[in-house]
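chain below, 403 aa
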Amino acid sequence: MTNKVRYRILYNRAKRMDQNGLAAVIVEAYQQGNRRYFSTGFKLKPADWDIKKKEVKGNPTYNRLIRTRLDELEAFEMRFPLQYQRPFSLEDFNLLPERQSARATPAQLTFTDFMRQQIERERPKLHRSTYSRYILVVKMLIDYNNGASVPFEALTYNFIEGYDYHLRTVHKYKQNTIFKQHQVINKYLVKAGLMGSTDNRHNPYHEFDTKKEPTERVVFYPSEIKRIEELVFNQANQHLAFYRDVFLLAYYTLLRISDITAIRQRHLIDEDGKLELEMAAQKTGKINRLPLYKLHQTASGGSKPEQILRQYSRTDGKPLFNRSHPRINEYVKDVFRLAGIAKSATFHTARHSGITFLVTVLPLPFVQQLAQHSDIKTTMIYVHISKRMIGDALDAVKWYSRN
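prediction:
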């Protein structure tokens, strides 16, 4: 019999509602006939719970955070035997770092203290730019609160609305930048609720709603990609060849900039001269397996992404494309200008453009998998079909057969 713990998410296990008509969402851990239950910090009305899917209806943020709670428990169980040199049992959940710190942390812990504490704990798995952005939110909240830490009880609807106005008028932030700030604050408010530091029912974001503005997404079409591919560099601009190749690699593979700059030689598997890439995505942690030799094949054999990766291979264990993201974004704009492309594009345009091209040659679910999107609706956000591409597709349709 295995000692592995089995987990499941339960709603209204007690089969009764509280005085507000709400019931708790909890995580059950089961091992050899024993069970333990862990709060997620969420209470819902029955109409908000999907019985079949075992998730909150129409709220991916809550579902992700509930799942994160389960993942934290499972991760602790998995590393426990190595850390403590003995088999794991349910009682060992008492040794969870968060439970120990909760006993040692004074009740006066403020929200901004909690945020900083959690951000530092998560730092090893956060990208540098994400870490800096999160820390900036903490500093700006303290600045808005006259230089003082922000206590949990201060986070009312009026406080959040005032902070929103402050970002808009004092800092002159655009709507989507403000939206991202609210996302970060709400993320750690919900996490504080999951860990028992506050009550999620009092979260001001239940009432305060901030929305993203639709953004105009720039895309390069095959004719423009060809111009970039055919660029010839002289001695003065030879350094741009590297950034051109990095951009094209992202277009061919659909990889994000965070993944491109993380590629090391060990991520490349060469079997009989056919190159594949296997690595965990920096943003999602999902394992990405790409058959590079099948992507954008050339008439002379091999594929375009293979050619680039072989050209920049290295044996010292360092990333193949070891440059900062701002530097890459700065120089790819010079590449675009050199190719005579006047569009206001960034490095991420490669991913948009690559997805847009692939949906013209592959079924959408296949493109979804290559792009590593959990929801096909996300893939559709990236698709930009031009009139010319529609015309080319219609020309290729065999509307009738010739006998």
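Residues 329 and 347 are 6 Å apart (CA to CA). The beta strands are 6-11, 23-31, 34-44, 49-50, 55-56, 268-271, 274-280, 287-290.
thats it, cya
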